[in-house]
Description:
Blueprint: E1 5-8, E2 11-15, E3 21-22, E4 27-30, E5 36-38, E6 47-51, E7 55-56, E8 66-70, E9 73-79, E10 93-99, E11 105-108, E12 116-123, E13 128-133
Parallel strand pairs: 9-11
Antiparallel strand pairs: 1-9, 2-8, 3-7, 4-5, 4-6, 6-8, 9-13, 10-11, 10-12, 12-13
Amino acid sequence: xxxxxxxxxxxxxxxxxxxxxxxxxQAVGVDxxxxxxxxxxxxxxxxxxxxxxYVSTAGLAAGAENVTVLxxxxxxxxxxxxxxxTAGSVGAPVYFDGHHTSGLPIVHGTATNxxxxxxxxRIQDANHAIIRLANVV
Length: 137
């Protein structure tokens, strides 16, 4: 497997919501209070980027810890089962479809009830894609 961060862009720090765990390489969203949380599935989520570190606020209040988030760049993602993404999909939008146990974002080629997090750079192998982050807030 390729290193998850292939090309770095700008990074920003965000306060993490209380009682929350954000894993390294995980897609990060923002809650109604402006705190970082693992990105939720569904349409029109506010996508901050991909976490560069593991942070846990178990038993802590919101803002007790910060997480560094990659706002742009090229990263490794896991392909969703039935994603519809192929080598011929290069340049197509990719949509968030969940979190893999490795921490990598899972991506799909269909927008229905999903939030765009990037564009396809290439298919890495049968289970992975290289994506350029996009649609970050």
